[in-house]
C-alpha cells in the first residue's frame, strides 16, 4: 500500500512552537480490503536530523559526546546526561552531508576526512515525522578532547574517545542509551572490518 | 553529573491530549564548573514502551509486522506503512515483561515462551521522555501470518516471517527504517549464535 491508500479528512494544528503537533483525522485501506473507520492521530512535525559516527579507522576508536538531555530528565532518569554520537537539526537550505561535517566539527572539535552515508530512519514513526540521516565520518580520535558546543545555544558538551568494543559494551550496559547512538555503534561493530579496508 | 545538578525554574503545560507537552525553564551544572544560563526546553511526555523481537531460534526466523504510521504520512513518505518488530505502551500497573508477552500475542498471534531483556533506550531524548524496554521473545514462527491487531484501536497489522540475513538486507535497503526495528535486527545479527546456544 502507499500514500494513495490514505484519505486525510482533517488536519489541525494543536501546537506551533519549537515543537509543533498536528491532529490528523484519516482513514486508510485495510490489508484485508475495505477501509478503516475514522482514525485520530496526533503527530509531531518533523525536522530532519543529521547524525554522525565520528570514527578513527587507524585506532579503531569512536569519538563520543556527553550532554544534558531533557527527555531522560522528564523520565526521572537518575543521570540525565547521555553519552552519544554527533547529531543536530538540518537547517533549511542546508544538505545533510554539509550539516554532518559542520556539527561534528562544532561538537567534537575534530576535522572530518571521508564521509559515508549509512542509512535514513524514523526515530518514532507512530508519533513523529522526524527523520534521521546517519553518516560515518573519518576523524583522528587523538585530537578529540575537552568541552565543546555553542554556549549561546545552551550546549555544554564533553568529548571522550572509546574503542568500538568498549562502545558496544557501553550499549549493553545501558551507558549508551539513545536510539541513534545505539544504531551507530551496532552498525560500526557489524561493519568496521569492511570500513577499515575501504578507508585503508 | 546527576539529577541533583539540575534546577527547574518553571514548568508550563502547553498541550494535554493524546500526549502531554511541557515547556520547562531550567539550569544545570556545567562540566567546567558553574551553572548554565536559564535554558528553555520543550518536552513531549509519553508513557514507557515495551518492544519485542519475536524470534524462532529453531527456524532462525523473526516474526515481523507491517502497519500504517502517521509520522511517516506527515513526513510525506511515499509508503507510510512501516515494517517493525512488536511494540506497545506499558499500561499503568503492568510490568514491561507482561506487556511484552501480551502485545506479542495481540499483534502477531504468537505465544512467547522464553523472554530475555536486551536493553533500555530513549528513541528521541532531545525532545521526548519515551523510554523503550527491548526484549527478545522465543516464538514458533510456523503458524505466524495473517492480519492482526485490535480494530477498536485502529490497528490493522500484517504479520510475516523473515530470516535474519534478509532482515539485514531490509535495513540496508531502507525497507526497515524505524529505530526500534533497526536496533532489534542489528542486535540479533550480533547475538544470534550465542542466543541459539542458550535457547537450544
Task: Reconstruct the topology from this structure.
The complex is a heterodimer of chains A (200) and B (200).
Chain A: E1 6-16, E2 20-28, E3 39-44, E4 48-56, E5 61-68, H1 70-74, E6 81-84, E7 86-89, H2 96-108, E8 115-122, E9 131-138, E10 147-148, E11 157-163, H3 164-173, H4 179-198
Parallel strand pairs in A: 4-9
Antiparallel strand pairs in A: 1-2, 2-3, 4-5, 4-7, 5-6, 5-11, 8-9, 10-11
Chain B: E1 6-16, E2 20-28, E3 39-45, E4 49-56, E5 61-68, H1 70-74, E6 81-84, E7 86-89, H2 96-108, E8 115-121, E9 132-138, E10 146-148, E11 157-163, H3 164-173, H4 179-198
Parallel strand pairs in B: 4-9
Antiparallel strand pairs in B: 1-2, 2-3, 4-5, 4-7, 5-6, 5-11, 8-9, 10-11
Helix pairs in contact in B: 3-4
Question: Can you walk through the features of this model?
Answer:
The complex is a heterodimer of chains A (200) and B (200). Chain A has helices spanning 70-74, 96-108, 164-173, 179-198; strands at residues 6-16, 20-28, 39-44, 48-56, 61-68, 81-84, 86-89, 115-122, 131-138, 147-148, 157-163. Chain A is of the alpha+beta class. Chain A has two domains: 3-44, no CATH class; 48-198, Alpha-Beta Complex (Nucleoside Triphosphate Pyrophosphohydrolase), CATH 3.90.79.10. In chain A, strands 4, 5, 6, 7, 8, 9, 10 and 11 form an eight-stranded mixed sheet that branches. In chain A, β1 and β2 (20-28) form a beta hairpin. The model of chain A has no long low-confidence stretch (mean pLDDT 94). Chain B has 200 residues and is α+β, with helices and mostly antiparallel strands. Chain B contains four helices and eleven strands. In chain B, strands 4, 5, 6, 7, 8, 9, 10 and 11 form an eight-stranded mixed sheet that branches. A three-stranded antiparallel sheet of chain B has the order 1-2-3, with no helix packed on it. In chain B, α3 runs antiparallel to α4. Chain B is globular and about 60 Å long. At the A-B interface, β1, β2, β3, α1 and β8 of A face β1, β2, β3, α1 and β8 of B.
Amino acid at each position: 500500500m502507499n500514500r494513495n491508500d490514505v484519505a486525510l479528512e482533517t488536519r489541525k494544528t494543536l501546537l506551533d512552537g519549537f515543537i509543533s503537533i498536528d491532529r490528523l483525522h484519516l482513514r486508510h485501506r485495510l490489508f484485508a480490503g475495505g477501509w478503516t473507520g475514522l482514525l485520530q492521530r496526533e503527530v509531531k512535525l518533523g525536522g530532519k536530523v543529521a547524525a554522525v559516527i565520528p570514527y578513527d579507522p587507524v585506532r579503531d576508536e569512536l569519538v563520543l559526546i556527553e550532554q544534558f538531555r531533557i527527555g531522560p530528565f522528564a523520565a526521572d532518569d537518575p543521570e540525565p546526561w547521555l553519552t552519544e554520537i554527533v547529531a543536530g537539526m538540518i537547517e533549511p537550505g542546508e544538505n545533510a552531508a554539509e550539516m554532518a561535517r559542520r556539527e561534528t566539527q562544532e561538537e567534537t572539535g575534530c576535522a572530518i576526512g571521508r564521509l559515508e552515508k549509512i542509512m535514513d530512519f524514523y526515530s518514532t514513526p507512530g508519533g513523529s515525522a522526524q527523520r534521521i540521516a546517519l553518516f560515518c565520518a573519518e576523524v583522528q580520535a587523538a585530537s578529540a578532547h575537552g568541552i565543546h558546543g555553542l554556549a549561546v545555544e545552551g550546549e555544554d558538551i564533553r568529548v571522550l574517545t572509546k574503542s568500538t568494543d568498549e562502545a558496544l559494551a557501553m550499549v549493553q550496559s545501558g551507558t549508551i542509551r539513545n536510539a541513534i547512538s545505539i544504531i551507530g555503534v551496532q552498525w560500526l561493530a557489524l561493519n568496521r572490518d569492511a570500513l577499515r579496508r575501504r578507508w585503508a | 553529573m546527576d539529577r541533583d545538578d539540575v534546577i527547574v525554574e518553571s514548568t508550563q503545560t502547553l498541550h494535554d491530549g493524546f500526549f502531554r507537552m511541557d515547556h520547562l525553564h531550567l539550569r544545570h551544572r556545567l562540566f567546567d564548573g558553574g551553572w548554565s544560563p536559564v535554558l528553555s526546553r520543550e518536552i513531549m511526555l509519553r508513557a514507557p514502551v515495551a518492544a519485542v523481537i519475536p524470534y524462532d531460534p529453531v527456524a532462525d526466523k523473526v516474526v515481523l509486522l507491517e502497519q500504517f504510521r502517521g509520522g511517516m504520512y506527515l513526513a510525506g513518505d511515499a509508503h507510510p506503512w512501516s515494517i517493525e518488530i512488536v511494540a506497545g505502551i506499558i499500561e499503568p500497573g503492568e510490568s514491561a515483561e507482561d506487556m511484552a508477552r501480551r502485545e506479542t500475542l495481540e499483534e502477531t498471534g504468537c505465544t512467547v515462551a522464553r523472554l530475555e531483556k536486551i536493553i533500555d533506550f530513549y528513541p528521541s531524548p532531545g525532545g521526548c521522555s519515551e523510554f523503550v524496554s527491548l526484549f527478545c521473545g522465543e516464538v514458533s514462527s510456523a503458524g505466524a501470518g495473517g492480519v492482526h491487531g485490535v480494530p477498536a484501536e485502529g490497528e490493522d497489522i500484517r504479520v510475516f516471517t523473515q530470516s535474519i540475513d534478509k532482515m539485514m538486507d531490509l535495513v540496508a535497503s531502507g525497507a526497515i527504517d524505524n529505530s526500534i526495528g533497526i536496533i532489534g535486527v542489528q542486535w540479533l545479527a550480533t547475538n544470534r549464535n550465542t542466543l541459539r546456544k542458550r535457547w537450544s
